[in-house]
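thought: fold this chain, then report.
action: predict
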Amino acid sequence: MGCSTSKTIPSQWVSADFKNQKIDRLLVYANTEDTNLQVEFENKVALSLTKQGLSPLKMHVIFPEISYKENRTQEEINQFALECKNKNINKVLLASRKSMIVDTVNTKSLHNYFNTLEPLKLGKTDVNSLVYDKKEIITYTLEAAVYDIGTTSEDKPIATSTLKAINPKSLDKLKEEFLDAIVLLFKNK
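observation:
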């Protein structure tokens, strides 16, 4: 088997609205069914953003009754936005895993190279009898999107920070890199 590599690709997008607005109060929501991960990540993001001069609020503290749901209706989203406005919250940072893709690929190995050579036979060859070494490549795409629910009714973010990670060596390291990408979004403001 060949060795696997780890690669992360961060990217950011910010709108003019995000650049021009003063953001101080912000609700941080780690959208996950794992409540321990939600609490841990929201606490870490809030602590890091506090160091940037923001006043982050944590979803698990402000709205403990709202739990993870894979698909929310537009009515539920509108109700949530209204509850945020009632608590004087106009910005929401929503962090979630957009995707996780598992690909199985042939490894680059001498074994596979020899198996791709045509066998020295005069009759028909049975390609199905060949055996290849394979490995899994796992790609995570994590995204943090900032929404301004105070001034717009559109469901479009005003800023995003995306981290694509291919074969991360450690999920803890991946969380830290995602946290750094989120903080960088506000540092560049």
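thought: worth noting. The mean pLDDT is 84.
final: tokens above.
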